[in-house]
Amino acid sequence: MSEKWLVGVDIGGTTIKSAFVDQEGEIIHKWEIPTNKNNKGYYIPSNIAKSINQTLNELGQSKNKIIGIGVGAPGPVDYKTGSIDVAVNLGWENLPLRDLLQDLTSLPVIVDNDANIAAMGEMWKGAGKESRNLLFVTLGTGIGGGIIINGEIIHGISGAGGEIGHITSIIDGGSPCNCGKTGCIETIASATGIVRLVTEELSSTHMPSKLRDLYDIDYPLSSELVFNLAGKGDELANKVIDKVTLYLGLALAHLTNGLNPEKIIIGGGVSKAGELLLLPLKEHFERFIFPRSLKGLELAIATLGNEAGVIGGAWLVKEKLLNQRKNENVYL
Questions:
Q1: Number of domains in the chain
Q2: Using CB atoms within 10 A of its CB, is residue 122 exposed (0-12), middle (13-18) or buried (19+)?
Q3: Is residue 125 one of the residues assigned to a domain?
Q4: Which of 163, 198, 225, 272 is the most interior residue, by most CB within 10 Å?
Q5: Domain span at 321
Q6: Structural domain includes residue 169
């Protein structure tokens, strides 16, 4: 019998990315569909099921080719039941996603948080390859994360393990976060946090900057623009990046002092800045780290991009469904 496939699904606020993946972690075929958030995301599970069926038909394959589906979803996930407590950007509350998808597809389904499955993808086929102990941080509109110890994702008692973005970096004051606290690292080092810091600097200083010139003509500011100008020597842009990497470096040092990982992988849209982000981050990080924890530790930029989630979803199927069946001597 030819090798069966794994399905990885990554549910985002704009698109749902899916892929058929072989058991070595190589993508066979990938596709995406729009995320239909109408009626509080009611149609999302059925749209996922329909897209899998349609793509199988297009490839001339049947469901017998599929071992199972690994899904990454935003928000806290009850890993044992595969249900979503709340996903604000999709409109979900107490959604039994695993059970719904299993009923709709007649295939085994396993669900985890989207940042967690991206961490698994990077561990399996990306920048974390060969590592069993790593921190994965996604710097995007917000900040997500995944903590892997001895090859296993840390979920915690309530499924909130890895919420790196809500480490409080500013104890007294700081900007409000969507979680209800103030001073979370997400309000500083995310793409939106970087833009907020820029606008604050423009309002509170008279420092000349290309950012000020653009701001005055209502040009849309972005984290990408800030890093680009920082690379060209813009003083205000570099001041903002220094603050971003200071607080992010402090947060990551605290985590590293407690966990002693072998790799810290930075992903998400902000990570596209590459060395412009990584070099000052390393400098600040090393200021706060316990020296012994630096031994054998590597900070790296994620390499899988938008494919991390679907590859991580496939890894879930391979490790949690396929290997379990093999251990039980079930014929596949």
A1: 2
A2: buried
A3: no
A4: 198
A5: 5-119+306-327
A6: yes
